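Troubleshooting log. The previous structure file for this entry was overwritten by mistake, so regenerating from the original sequence record. Sequence copied from the archived sheet and checked twice against the printout by T.R.
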Amino acid sequence: MSRLEQRRDMLVSTLVNYLEALGVGVRIDANLVPDAEQLRSGLKSGQLSLPIIGGPSPPGRRDLVLSIKPEYSTKIVSGQKTVELRRRFSANVQPGTVVLIYESSPTRAITGMARIAEVLHGPTNTIWKQFADEACIRRSDFDSYFAGAKTGFAIKLRGARPLKRALELQELRDRFRFEPPQSFLYAPPELREALLHECSELLN
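Regenerated output below.
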């Protein structure tokens, strides 16, 4: 610590690493002071503070993990299947959201990713007529899945790609305390950070 204090400057990442090693959380904010024009317009209630390091993720940047059967997930990453169907889904998911594809048993691993192009909600009979081919699903399987539901969601995907290396469930549990969802969940922030470093060319 003495050597750090004697430096004239240092990398922010160095400071963050030292403090986190001591068990201290770090947050750096940028405070934007309203200019004269804003003040004349009535925007005079202090400063706008934006988190640079440490704060919550910006709205709309919460990645999703979708649990998908192997027979469908392989078709998604190959580009054959471009629509995923759900009985229930979040109305807050925005176009451009990253989807991490968790391939369920027997694979049990995150094997690919895509982005959401659009989320559509409507009657199940309309969903079947419009998206059966893109969803790569048989009518009997569709009827079985949506049994008792009058409406459902069609999630249009784009840019699907396989991961260079599948992240198996045991690794996900050990590194991120991850448990696979029955349908979908928001990805833990630390999982996204790891993928930014390990698979950045697939995320950007």
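Residues 124-135 form the longest helix (12 residues). Archived copy saved in two places this time.
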